[in-house]
Amino acid sequence: MSSPDHRPIRFVHRGAIVAVDDAPTTQSVLYWLRESARCVGTKEGCNEGDCGACMVIVAERDAEAPDGVALRPVNACLQFLSALDGKALITVEDLKRIAPDAAHPAQQAMVDCHGSQCGFCTPGFTMSLAACYDDALAAATRPSRQQVADALSGNLCRCTGYRPILDAGAAMFDRPAARIDRRALAVLLDTLAADAPLHYDAPESALAASAAPGATAWVAAPRSIDDLAALYSAHPDARLVAGATDVGLWVTKQFRPMPKMIRVDAVAALKAIAWYGDTLSIGAGASLEAAWSALVALAPALREMQLRFASLPLRLAGTMGASVANGSPIGDSAPTLLALDATLLLRRGPTQRRVALADFYVDYMKNRLVPGEFVEAIELPRPVDGTQLRGYKLSKRYDCDISAVCAGLSVRLEHGRVARIRIAFGGMAAICRRAEAAEALVLGSPWDEATIDSAVDALARDFAPMTDLRASAAYRTKAAGNLLRRFWMETRETAPLATDRTSVWTVRAD
């Protein structure tokens, strides 16, 4: 039976508010678009967030965005329909409404620059370009070619090639302006904001066959941290969901049941990023893009790690808090956070406690969270002046790929000797962790090549990596040592190498 506070999922689509009351809790936006709304311009490719054929734009209220409305390109295949509650969905069909008398500038530029061949990926590319275009016009700027490429990092083309698509990304700004009416969206979004917090019970006819026997399939989206804590404490068997960039794959690829789901993306306070004295607090619900931007503000050298963490749509949807809580041994956030001495603020009901990230992971995909407890924030001490921080990632594909080895490294020198050192790796063990033997050897020693040679040798005492499809154990061991040497070369006191001298990628300014 439905709970007393049950209500349908409500969002804006095709310029009007729609209500969905007959879908499974884990139905994806992509499935709803193609099978229910019959908007088939959005394509299904990989169904795991890699190819971008299903790209759509989600609009939501944001006081800091133009006209108070932010546009986020996201993968429709990974987003559960409940993620749209209170928001607006814009698809390739809507581009005709934005530019009723001609093709949208992104579409026409793709035609003029021959940016489409088989056409399967084209709607997704066009939606990413449309978001980039609208944000640039709102800011009265024109992105560089590299910035357009960054905006398209979540889109894959197998036959046209990227040069004409990047050409289209430049040419679209030469056409008459055609912007999304954010003010009209704001009125509709404000109407939705008056709704009660979402508690949606899927009808029995829509329950997945694999749902747990006797369980009620529901999804709730509390709006305050207190309500979230109380709900999760009462239902510790529920699955917390933020951007679903990982959980979405549990459903689309592994067909795992998820009878109870608590969404955290409606809790505005959980997205806050702020300084409290000398502590930077990153809310667990802050997007990966926002969280990494805060880290880059601390250490500009982390910019490459931010761009390589994942595609822009995945960084806009996923959260750093979920990435850390998930605890993947090849996660890209944890090594950098370990190098920054991060502490996690945990919450269960009204009770809070703090655990150092270095002590949080117990074993492969196991951590110190107790049932009903969640990560509320990531806390970072302000780095002492003179601290140098780097993040490095090695993967088979340069962009949007899972790491074989990921490193987070920081050092502070006093009078030529190491006063503080953090050496953390992902991909080298069952958990992301620090190289304690190597750190102990380096601490207090001169920051010279002999010290680094000894530290590289000590890595063999810290880690015994495995061989898998991404890399062999021997490669991981060798690569980790080389990354440590690279870090020394960039931070040594005599003739340090500039970052672009040790990178295979140089950011283009044109």
General description of the model:
- This protein has 510 residues and is of the alpha+beta class.
- It folds into 3 domains: 165 residues, Ubiquitin-like (UB roll) (Roll); 72 residues, DNA polymerase, domain 1, CATH 1.10.150.120; 230 residues, CO dehydrogenase flavoprotein, C-terminal domain (Enolase-like, domain 1), CATH 3.30.390.
- It is 32% helix and 21% strand.
- The protein has 18 helices and 20 strands.
- The strands form 5 sheets. The chain has a 5-stranded mixed beta sheet with strand order 2-1-5-3-4. Strands 10-11-16-12-13 form a 5-stranded antiparallel beta sheet.
- A hairpin with a 2-residue loop joins strand 1 and strand 2.
- The longest helix is centred in the last third of the chain and has 19 residues.
- It is globular.
- The relative contact order is 0.09.
- About 1% of the residues have low confidence.
Descriptive tags:
single chain, 510 residues, alpha+beta, Ubiquitin-like (UB roll), DNA polymerase, domain 1, Enolase-like, domain 1, 3 domains, five-stranded mixed beta sheet, five-stranded antiparallel beta sheet, 21% strand
Low-confidence runs: 209-215
β content, as a range? 15-25%
CATH superfamily of the largest domain: CO dehydrogenase flavoprotein, C-terminal domain
Stated plainly, the CATH topology of the largest domain is called: Enolase-like, domain 1
Radius of gyration: 24 Å
- Number of DSSP helices? 18
Q: Which word captures the global form?
A: globular
Structural class of the secondary structure composition? alpha+beta
CATH architecture of the largest domain: 2-Layer Sandwich
- Would you count the extended β strands for me? 20
Tell me the helix content: 25-40%
